[in-house]
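Hi, here's the filled form for the chain we discussed.

Project: internal
Contact: R.S.
Residues: 158
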Amino acid sequence: MRTTFPTSVSAAEKTAAAQVYTQRGWTVAETANGLSLITDDTVSGIEVAGELADDVRRFLRANDLSGPVIEIPGVQRREIHLVTGVRKAAMALQALRDAGATVYTDGMGIPLPPTQLSAGSACWGIAPDEARWVPPVVAIAAAVRATTTGRAKLTIAC
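And the returned structure, exactly as it came back:
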C-alpha cells in the first residue's frame, strides 16, 4: 500500500524560504514536501534525540553556544543542530556517532522548515536569525560528551 503525505507547503512558501536560505550561503534543494538543506563544508547537521536532545540543548544554552536547531516532529524528540567545521573534526564526528547522534555531511539532505514530514512539519527550535552563529561541530560534541558523562556519573552514583 502506497502512503502519501499532505503537502501543505505552498509554492510561494517554498520560494520565499529558499531565497532566505540561499542568501545565507546554503545549498537548498526543493522536494515534493518542502526544502532540503544539502550539507557541505559550510554547513552540516548533527541530530540528537530523546533525553540527549534535551540535555544538549540545555548545555548549549547555558554556555552561550546555541546555534540554529531544526525540530523534527515525532513520538520522540529529535533535533538537528546546524554546525560548521566538519572537515577538521573527524574525532568529534566519531565521538558523536558513538554517542548515538546522526551526522549529516557530504551532500546528505536535512529537511528545512516548512517541510512537511510524516508526523508534521519541520520547524525551527532556534531560527538562524535568532542564533548568534552556526557553531562548530566540536561545540555540539562537547555538549554531548558533557551531558553523557554527567548522566553516566549519576547512574554510577545510584
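Let me know if anything looks off before we file it.
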